[in-house]
Amino acid sequence: MKLVRTLEVAADHPALAGHFPGMPILPGAVLLDEALHAIEADRNLDLTQWQVSAAKFLEPARPGDALAIEHGAAPDGTLRFAVRIAGRPVLTGTLTLASVAASDSDDA
Fold this sequence. Notes:
Blueprint: E1 3-8, H1 28-43, E2 50-57, E3 66-73, E4 79-85, E5 88-97, H2 98-107
């Protein structure tokens, strides 16, 4: 089941102050952190047991942007997520259980 949560980038968000003066954007680390917090809360998960196995930043998020954070379980057991602005993806990614990711790397 896909879950969706909305979040607005506040014009006075502290991360915007130095990133970049005159043309502020939300740093990718903050965007990813917001997505992870939403997934953790919506799915009642302890994300210390998961790792980000993929993350792709596609567009900047700016002050006032309404973000839609969506996530769902994939058939392979991973969690796929996307952050969108007006339907356009700005971040996409995948979370993998840490034990699964570790055993995959042992096979390599």
